[in-house]
Amino acid sequence: MSKPQPVTGDAMSLFGLVQPELNAVDRLIREVLTEEDPMVQRVADYLQQAPGKRVRPGLVLLGGHAARPKPETGRLVPIAAAVELIHLATLVHDDIIDRAETRRGQPALYRAFNEQVAVLTGDFLFARAFQLLAGTGHPEVVAAAADVVHTMCVGEIRQNLDHGRVATEAEYLRRIDAKTAQFLATSCRLGALAVDAPPAVREALTTYGWHVGMAYQLVDDLLDVVADPVRLGKAVAADFQQGVITLPVLYGLERVPEPAALAQALAEAQDPRRHAEAVRLLEQSGALDDVRALAERMAAEAVAALEPVPAGPAREALAVLARFVVVRDF
Predict the structure, then answer these.
(1) Where are the alpha helices (DSSP H) in the chain?
(2) 16-325 has CATH 1.10.600.10 classification
(3) CA distances from 144 to 130, 151, 152, 182, 193 (A)
(4) pTM of the model
(5) Domain segments of the chain as ranges
(6) What is the C-alpha to C-alpha distance for residues 182 and 204, in angstroms, rounded to an integer?
(7) What pLDDT digit, counting tens, does each position of 96-107 carry?
C-alpha cells in the first residue's frame, strides 16, 4: 500500500459550515474562563494561548446540523463549548500522568505552573463544562456527557495499571475505544440530542463518530512514531517512552527480526537519526501500512454509517472529515 500524501491545509476549513458557531464557542469559552482572581486568570489565559483543532466541538455542531438541517442552535453552542472544556481538562491531567513536556507547541500546564495547579485546573474545567451542560436544561445531554467522562477515566485507569506491558491487539482496540472513540461518538450524539433528532439519526451519528474516533486515534498513534515533532507539537515516540505500546509498535515488535533494536531506537527517538531508524524498521515490517489500512477501513465505515442521516452540506462535511482523518499529518 502506498503511503497517503499528507494534508497540509487548515483543519478548521473542514468545519467551515459551522465556523460562525465555532467562533461563538470560542467566545463562550473565554467568557466561562474569566475569573476575578488575577492569579487564576493567568492560568486560564495560558490555557487559551494555543487553541486546539476543535474537532470535538466541531462534531457537536456538524452533528446537530446534519441531524436537523437549519436547527435551533441555542443548545448546540454551549454543548460544543462544554465538550471542548472536557477535552481540555483531560489533556491537562494526561500531561501530568504522562510527564509530557509540551502541549500544542508550548510547555504543558504543569510545567508552566506546577502539578497541583494543573490538577486543580483540570477539575475547574470539568466543573465549568458541566455548568454549561446543566444550563441546557436537557438531562439526557448531561447524562451522556457524564457517561463518556466515566468511560474515559476507566480507560485511563486501565492503561496506567497496564503501564509498560505489551498488550494484545484486542486490548489495544479496547483502550482506544475508551480513550478516544467513545468521546467522538458522544460528541456527535450530543449534537443530535441537542436538536431532538429522531432515534435512527442519533444512532447513525453516534456510530459515525465512533468509527471516526477509532480512525483518529489509530492515525494519532502512527503520527506519534513517524511525524515531524515540530508539526506534531510534541516529542516523537512519546507513547513508547511512557510505557504505552500502540498498535504500530505492537505490530513492529511482533514482526522485526530484532525487536530489541526497534525498542532501543524508539527509546532514543529524540535523536533524529535514531528516529529515522525506528521509522525504517517499522516501514520494513509492514506495521505502518497495516495500521493505515485499518484506519482507512474505519473511516470508510464511518461514511457508510451516515446513510440514515438527511442528505445535505452537513452530512457531506462529516464524510469529508472522516476521509481527512486518515491522511492528516498533524
Answers:
(1) 19-32, 38-47, 55-67, 76-98, 109-112, 115-134, 139-161, 169-176, 182-194, 199-226, 229-232, 238-241, 247-255, 259-267, 272-285, 287-305, 313-325
(2) yes
(3) 11, 11, 12, 11, 10
(4) 0.91
(5) 16-325
(6) 14
(7) 998 888 888 799
